[in-house]
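Please check the following for our workbook:

***
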Amino acid sequence: MDSGTGTSSPPGEIVEAIASARGQGQTSRRSLDPCAVCGALDYRRLRHIYWAGRADTAFSNSFKRAIRRLGHVVPIDSHRAVFSSLAFGAAVLERRESLAWFPEGHRSHTGKLQPFRPGIGMLLHRFRVPIVPVFIHGTHEAMPPGRAWARPRQITVRFGEPLDPRELEQQGAGDSPQDRIVQALYEHVAALGFDRT
């Protein structure tokens, strides 16, 4: 689905959830990944998307809090109990807005796709909204760990087809429905990376 310009458009209308994963990217204090996804979406979609952001870094002072609120960022606190840390994401989906979620949840020092954390599986098991898998390539090269500023590199954002969480639950392996959703979603995102040309 690449358009040849480094991005591809997400299919269909507004989707309820977007799972972005950094194949060759990172989750860091200065991550380019949200910027890459923003650059691949038109304003019509962007104005309905809320972004999951780490509470300890994205909301660490009043200036950052103000900027994040303007950008529709909701705090996710990995140090709190699982359900309370997902409450803001759940509230977004209850309002039928779109939610962009980075399911790896931590920085990759190698740039390789990391295992997904269980939060996205819990949200999708509860809300059963369509999810668009997204694969990002190139942000690790543009801003590797320890670098303060990005350098010019090609970044590619690939969007898959919307997926039904019920089908993901059938496709995946694991003891719980949430685990199966997470595992199947990981495979779909990884496949977008392997399909890279």
